[in-house]
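re: the backbone from monday

yeah here it is again, tokenized this time
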């Protein structure tokens, strides 16, 4: 009996589901990504601004500074506002840190390495992206603070200006691949990446993605110079840490989704096919593309100033949505005159 129980436990620990849950794209991947990217962003922005950035903790380039900050937030006291709506105040950061991880379950890291394979994987990822901004809105309202509520209202405007072109711009990819299945979309790029066929759609998607994940120059809902720290103003300790954790998970999910739709996803040559398993090579390629995307987003943060909310609305409604529609029409014409370009 004990041998059967042990075999069952050992079988689970070595199963693909366990590896996906705790490694890629599971808990270990999410935690390690956040620790590395926060440190990397601080160092890269410091170089852009002619500073040193984290230097001492961990001796080598301050490599353990993010871990030290996490431990500080974990044990730091947080005091809820007296008039806050407690249930929403406590739950919003928890869900904000966990909901974006659901988008990772739909993204293929190899042809066979996907947590939730689905014929509508793209729609699942979009559903998660669309639901995520609701949580900061709830948090801003639950804090019962003028600054947090203004930040929540800004999220509503920003979400509308970014979500619609984000959806419309990806229609070209769906039309070329003939599928909402992300694996089929990646395989349709075996000859050439869709960013070559969809440069306009990729640009619109990229700008809209920055707005959806609230990165500079679209960090309008936080805007510390105007709103203290926007909808995060009343949060401290581990609750503040969860809000930042959710932001970087959204960054990872958005970068992976862009890489999947426009940069060929997990496709790439395996230099040692007899030595490196194909799944490992595929994971390495999509993670490399994600790293490039994250680096570009960090450089943009160091190079561009924040937009005003009216400028964002003008950009979204007057430029991004029309350009996304134009991209859809151009894709239709491309498929009609050159039917061999897509994978449908």
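seq for it, each position gets an aa:
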């Amino acid at each position: 009996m004990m041998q059967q129980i042990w075999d069952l436990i050992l079988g689970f620990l070595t199963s693909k589901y366990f590896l996906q849950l705790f490694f890629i794209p599971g808990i270990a991947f999410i935690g390690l990504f956040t620790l590395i990217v926060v440190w990397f962003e601080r160092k890269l922005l410091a170089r852009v601004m002619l500073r040193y950035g984290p230097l001492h903790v961990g001796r080598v380039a301050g490599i353990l500074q993010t871990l030290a900050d996490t431990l500080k937030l974990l044990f730091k006291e947080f005091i809820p506002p007296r008039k806050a709506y407690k249930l929403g105040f406590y739950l919003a950061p928890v869900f904000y840190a966990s909901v974006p991880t659901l988008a990772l379950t739909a993204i293929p890291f190899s042809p066979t390495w996907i947590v939730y394979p689905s014929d509508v994987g793209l729609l699942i990822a979009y559903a998660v992206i669309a639901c995520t901004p609701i949580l900061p809105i709830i948090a801003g309202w639950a804090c019962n603070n003028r600054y947090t509520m203004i930040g929540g209202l800004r999220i509503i405007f920003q979400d509308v200006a970014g979500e619609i072109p984000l959806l419309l711009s990806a229609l070209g990819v769906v039309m070329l691949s003939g599928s909402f299945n992300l694996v089929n979309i990646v395989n349709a790029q075996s000859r050439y990446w869709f960013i070559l066929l969809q440069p306009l759609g990729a640009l619109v998607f990229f700008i809209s993605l920055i707005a959806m994940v609230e990165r500079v120059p679209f960090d309008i809902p936080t805007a510390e110079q105007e709103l203290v720290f926007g909808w995060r103003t009343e949060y401290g300790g581990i609750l503040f840490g969860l809000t930042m954790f959710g932001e970087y998970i959204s960054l990872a999910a958005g970068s992976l989704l862009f890489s999947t739709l426009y940069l060929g996803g997990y496709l790439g040559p395996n230099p040692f096919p007899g030595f490196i398993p194909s799944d490992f090579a595929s994971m390495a390629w999509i993670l490399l593309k994600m790293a490039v995307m994250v680096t570009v987003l960090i450089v943009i943060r160091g190079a561009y100033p924040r937009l005003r909310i009216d400028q964002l609305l003008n950009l979204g409604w007057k430029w991004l949505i029309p350009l996304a529609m134009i991209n859809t029409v151009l894709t239709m014409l491309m498929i009609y005159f050159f039917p061999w370009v897509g994978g449908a």
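The chain has a mean pLDDT of 88. Residues 80-337 form one domain.
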